[in-house]
Design brief:
Blueprint lengths: L8 H11 L5 H14 L4 H4 E7 L2 E6 L2 H9 L1 H12 L6 E5 L5
Parallel strand pairs: 2-3
Antiparallel strand pairs: 1-2
Length: 101
């Protein structure tokens, strides 16, 4: 392979991340680092953002008992995050039980 055939990693990274379901790494990094200031209870104490895939933010409940409570309020969180990041970036929230792949 000749040197001119090589591409910078920065050119390849967006496609790689999109293939993994993390097309908006910037948003996911901000969600992870600022979760406790971006959201209110019960979200900040009972859930952790996991992945943003095609506008759906997947959050993991910290325990099984919190899953139902958080699912009930997921549309409100989606609306709040859509205001913060844009409805084209986050349009819904999926709550999953702890340890679910």
């Amino acid at each position: 392979m000749e040197r001119r055939d090589l591409k910078p990693v920065s050119d390849l990274l967006p496609a790689l991340l999109a293939g993994l379901g993390v097309a908006r790494l910037d948003v996911m990094l901000r969600l992870s680092s600022e979760w406790e200031t971006l959201v209110e209870d019960p979200w900040k104490t009972h859930a952790v953002p996991q992945i943003l895939r095609e506008g759906v933010l997947v959050v993991e409940a910290k325990n099984g008992a919190a899953v139902r409570m958080l699912r009930y309020g997921s549309s409100g969180l989606a609306d709040h995050l859509a205001e913060e990041f844009g409805a084209d970036v986050i349009h819904s929230v999926e709550v999953v039980a702890p340890g679910r792949p």
